[in-house]
Amino acid sequence: MGLERGASWGHPGALPDGAPVARTDGEVRAIVEAARRDDAPLPVIGLLGGDLCRTVGGRGDERRLRSDDAVHLPVDVVRATVAGCHHWFVAHLVAASPLWASCTLVMNAQWRGRWDVAPAGHPGDGAVDVLDAALPLGQRLEAWRRIRTGTHVPHPQIRTRRASAIELRWGSPRPVVLDGRRVARADAVDLVVEAAALIVVV
């Protein structure tokens, strides 16, 4: 079950001894994928950097992680089936055609680098924010400027939706990038949100 509006989220407490610490979304993703492939429980993970860390208010302070000031937060993990293989991500999926003439961004985190892609997004609500865009070059440049402040939407040529499960289909294969790592070229991806599957500490 995802986060309910107005409900409290998380609880205080230090990172458990021996728990892994991640400085990028890719490092979190690697830990999640390894556990899923071994059919093992997901460990509690301390966050010191990355877009998910920024989204949940992480400060990049390892001393805080080891103190009672740290906070444990349940966040969603997203399973992506790409070219018949299961992958997982925690922050975002990006699939763009050359020069970003058309693109799809699936956001569990609010941020992708300097881009405020999903300003109303929440990584613990049981859903992802999906943006599909196909813009002429001039509008693309304007959208890239506005996305840094989260003012790129609403836009008549940017479709937005929220979902806990979704099938993405494109007319031709494109690179699929999960948490900053390209995993395949594909013309289709199936996504399922695993609500509150992972505990992170910031």
Q: Distance N terminus to C terminus?
A: 22 Å
> pLDDT below 50 for ≥5 consecutive residues: which ranges?
1-6
SS-derived structural category: alpha+beta
Percent range for β-strand residues: 35-45%
Task: Tell me the Rg in angstroms.
Answer: 17 Å
Fold blueprint:
Blueprint: E1 11-12, E2 21-22, H1 25-37, E3 45-47, H2 51-55, H3 62-65, E4 71-82, E5 85-89, E6 92-96, E7 102-107, E8 111-112, E9 115-116, E10 128-134, H4 137-147, E11 158-163, E12 165-178, E13 181-201
Parallel strand pairs: 2-3, 3-13
Antiparallel strand pairs: 1-4, 4-5, 4-13, 6-7, 6-12, 7-10, 8-9, 10-11, 12-13
Key attributes of the depicted protein:
202 residues; alpha+beta; globular; 16% helix; disordered N terminus; two-stranded antiparallel ribbon
What does this structure look like?
This protein is an alpha+beta fold. It contains four helices and 13 strands. Strands 1, 2, 3, 4, 5, 6, 7, 10, 11, 12 and 13 form an eleven-stranded mixed sheet that branches. A two-stranded antiparallel ribbon has the order 8-9.
